[in-house]
UniProtKB/TrEMBL annotation:
This is Phosphonatase-like hydrolase. It comes from Aeoliella straminimaris. Keywords: Hydrolase. It holds the Pfam family Hydrolase. The keyword Hydrolase applies. InterPro entries: HAD-like_hydrolase_sf, HAD-like_sf, HAD-SF_hydro_IA, HAD_sf, PGP-like_dom2, PhnX-like. The lineage of its organism: Bacteria, Pseudomonadati, Planctomycetota, Planctomycetia, Pirellulales. One of its GO terms (cellular component) is cytosol. GO terms for biological process: DNA repair. One of its GO terms (molecular function) is phosphoglycolate phosphatase activity.
Amino acid sequence: MIELVVFDMAGTTVDEDNVVYKTVRAAVNAAGYDFSQDQVQTFGAGKEKSQAIRDVLAIDGQPHTEEEVQQIFADFKQRLATAYKDLNVREQPGAKETFAALRERGIKSVLNTGYDRAMAESLVAKLGWQVGREIDALVTASDVPNNRPHPDMIHKAIELTGVSSPKAVAKVGDSKIDIEEGKNAGCGMTFGITTGAQTEAQLVEAQPTAVLNRLLELVDAVATENCSS
């Protein structure tokens, strides 16, 4: 029986016009590279952002120093902060309705993200969401030792919400690494969603329970699982 859904943020519950991966690309290419947006999203989606930069740089097969990664990461953070000042951040269609529908069924909702806490909290505040109202907790990449695809953020969400076991958790996200994170945590269900960084064909490669096109589809999927449990 599902007691908790862990939601990714950017591309899944938050519509920020893909600005994160556009900014990753801008910062990397400003350092002298020429990676496409598709390459950035294929190799960087869902990851803590310095790791995303490492993995994008690795595409060309050449060695890159950690100093270079950190220089690009610092540039990325400055660019993203500037972009977010004027960006009209919106919730993905049906996000609040999904949280509310799950809450009516006694199912908790936690956001987790490859952002650090400061950036994640600024996004949540822009949306007008509050822990204890729309969501039950927020877990970020800077809260745990290991980031996706490691299960640390989901284990932290379980700890914060008092859920009985990973099998009682469903994970939903817009990238393969979200699905891998859920599987590594032992989640009872994992869902890809096509509203963000990766396509249905890419998401299917990670073998989720299902791929969704809209967040509200999650409510019936989880309810059906609980009825059959």
